[in-house]
Amino acid sequence: MPSLSPSELILHPDGSIYHLHLHPEQVAPTIILVGAPARVPLVSRHFDRIEERVQKREFVTHTGWRNDRRLSVVSTGIGTDNIDIVLNELDALFNIDLRSREVKSELTQLDLIRIGTSGSLQPDLPVDSYLASGYGLGLEGLLHYYSLANNAEETLIQLELMRHAGQGFGFPLRPYLVGGSETLRQEIAYDFPTGITATCSGFYAPQGRQLRLPSQQPDLLPHLRGFRYESWRITNFEMETAGIYGLARLLGHRALSLNALLANRVDQTFSPHPQRTVERLIEMTLERLSS
Prior knowledge:
29% strand, 5-stranded mixed barrel, 7 helices, Rossmann fold
């Protein structure tokens, strides 16, 4: 494969990758992804020691050690547009020689664990509980720009989803579906409920919320909530998981999305102590990663 041009693989004069401003030695192969930059130190304060602190735009990276495991935590910002940047650049740090601009012959597989917040779509998943995403349902379109091959179960779920959608409901964009790492889920979130996480292109109308602007999809929530395929149902809304799962699959990495459910859209409640709920999820995840 020819070397990548400067317009494809953009580097700073110091050799660091463009958006994340990182050198390969500054990031570990086990990476916790959080949305908000302010959440990075909430994770890294549980490290035994921190080796690296780097910030560029909304992308904050801390790398250090907890017990015998080297970990990084990276803030992505909101949305799959940022996920596209973060996952491609993290992969490049490990799997492209930045000096020669050539793809390495051997893959370094990354473990990518999202610790995020989400809204529940089901009455039995209350606020302040946790959920591991078995699948990401992309309602925002990122993976249509890549060539994603579904496995047999994903194909069957998608076919059933489109049949369900044909009963008086249409998606503005063609949805895609991709699973996360079952191995990581069994290692870290073995006792969490699981389901299909809907990844949306926005927070308001794309998730069925209305302030002053009416939604063109007023029946979005009940239609998604009513979907079933065998034991699978659509459990929650957020804005990153399907992009993480899709790009991780394509790049050869393992990914898991862990969700702190701060809102319940059925009973219209919101957590009275969201920070405490997120901090418990951080502590639980780190304990299981480093035990």
